[in-house]
Amino acid sequence: MMGSSKATRRKSRKKRRRLAVAAITSLIVVTLVMVGGFVYTLYLLGLVNFVNTENESFGSVTDIDESEAIDPSVAGIVPDDPITINDLAESVDDIAVQGNTKVITNILLLGVETDRKDNYIGRSDTNIIVSINKHTKTIKLISLLRDTYVSIPGRERNKLNAAFRFGGFSLLQQTIEENYRLKIDRFVAVNFSAFSSIVDAMGGVDIELTEREAEIVKVGNVAKSYHLNGKKALDYVRIRKIGDDWGRTSRQRTLLKALMKKAKNMDRLTMMGTLDKVLSKASTNMKRTEFLGYIMNAPSYLGYEIKEFHVPERSKCNTPRVPIPGTTYVMEVVELKDSKAAILELHHEIYG
């Protein structure tokens, strides 16, 4: 009996040792995975061009708060998120300036009109407000037409896209606040070179083209879906021969939605490889912790419903020719017939 008892105790001790070794091994593996993930995350953040806001090519911006992007869900509650939209305002100046709320974050996506790799001194060819609503789980892509005739602080009236050329993001931000009554502190910018590289890094993109679009992009002469590489995608979003600036902004949103759809369908390994190539092409004035929140929660955001909007609507504006400041030439601009009504409509679209 004594021998049997000793043997049982030895087996028990061996079993405990095996369990301890297994537990320690599992802990080591988990630790290595966590450390590896942390190191990889730091590596990804190191790829992004976090803009020094004193850099004259982007201008300066202050009062950037931490985002709630780290928690993209407000499921199960109706947030206390009051919005004041004054429909009875007598003028644009009487409309209250709206900014980010507990559940709505507005980010300006900029496409800068230069093809030099690291150069961001140029006009903002693309001005899309990416409005993320964590309560309704929607992302709205809202184009501000680049040819819109606006008041630029400290300058003569000009097209919206000229503000970035004159004073970087700081002046563009002030221009949007004055003319659209929106305070947008955050931006993500790419130039032509970066845009093409991003599309190529994602393996190109499939877009339904009309016969005329296919001819202009030089990929065919039949209306159908075409696979576009970075250069052809850039040619596509820059088409102005069809639909003027309205057609152009529509194509920009179409391309952006196609890229988001492609990202949504990527497996984790492919997504990591793509981020490795894409992030180095982007510039932003977000804080690192804030940008990290968007990266970590990208799968959640990609599951949101995508909606589109643009300002102004074609029927609600004129297209006069006006003098180009400082020259004897003229340019065609987009001028709102009723600025107050258009801005209130924009505010309702974002916050309504």
CATH topology of the largest domain: Nucleotidyltransferase, domain 5
CATH-scheme architecture of the largest domain? 2-Layer Sandwich
Helix content: 40-55%
CA-atom Rg in angstroms: 25 Å
Number of domains: 2
CATH class of the largest domain: Alpha Beta
**What form results from the Cα inertia axes?**
globular
Main sheet characteristics: 7 strands, mixed
Termini separation (Å)? 81 Å
Low-confidence stretches: 28-40, 60-70
- Our count of helices gives 10
Task: Annotate the secondary structure layout.
Blueprint lengths: L1 H46 L1 E2 L53 E9 L11 E10 L4 E7 L4 E2 L7 E2 L1 H20 L5 E6 H10 L3 E5 L1 H7 L6 E5 L1 H8 L6 H21 L3 H11 L4 E2 L3 H9 L1 H5 L2 E7 L5 E2 L2 E3 L6 E3 L2 E2 L2 H13 L1
Parallel strand pairs: 1-10, 2-7, 4-11
Antiparallel strand pairs: 2-3, 3-4, 5-6, 7-10, 8-9, 12-15, 13-14
Helix pairs in contact: 3-5
